[in-house]
Specification:
This protein is mostly helical. Helix content is 87%, strand content 0%.
Length: 175
């Protein structure tokens, strides 16, 4: 290839890279929180609407519940992750302060309790929106999802073979 062709290919490559970074930057910084949430969770919402036979009004109410729930849970989840890091840092010290360790465990327990309460409140709010038939189907879907999570957790503890994990992940399909 000639030197001129290589220069043009390089320029083209730089333009593509800059365009890609600009697009990512736009979506990251200029899209509203609601637009990002809608884009990320639209598949889940479509799945629920189809599986439960939701009306448009029910679908909008559930979407609103999901948004509000994640806005409440996110700070707790972030605090929990930070507290777990603190817990492991405390354990990794040369001299472990058992009282500090217990305080960290108490904070982790409290954050988990708060998250569980928010989850229960969210489930009750879903119940208020759904018809009795939809509730039955909704909780059946939730029970199936919990079985899948438990299966994954058991599988990850019982297997160190990555090919088994990959095969398991391909077999289990979650919308």
């Amino acid at each position: 290839m000639s030197k001129k062709t290589l220069i043009w290919l390089f320029i083209f490559s730089v333009i593509i890279n800059i365009s890609t970074l600009a697009t990512i930057g736009y979506h990251r910084w200029f899209e509203s929180k609601r637009q990002r949430f809608d884009r990320k969770h639209s598949g889940h919402q479509q799945f629920l609407t189809k599986e439960l036979g939701l009306t448009e009004q029910q679908s909008e109410q559930i979407q609103k519940l999901r948004m509000e729930f994640w806005e409440q849970i996110k700070p707790l989840k972030d605090q929990l992750e930070q507290e777990r890091r603190t817990f492991f840092e405390l354990q990794n010290q040369d001299t472990v302060d058992i009282e500090a360790l217990y305080r960290s465990i108490d904070r982790i327990s409290e954050l988990q309790r708060q998250m569980q309460r928010k989850t229960a409140e969210n489930m009750l709010a879903h119940q208020a929106i759904l018809t009795p038939e939809q509730r039955k189907k909704f909780f059946s879907l939730m029970a199936n999802r919990m079985k899948i999570w438990e299966s994954r957790r058991k599988h990850s503890y019982n297997s160190t073979d990555s090919t088994k994990s990959q095969k398991h992940n391909q077999e289990v399909q979650i919308p």
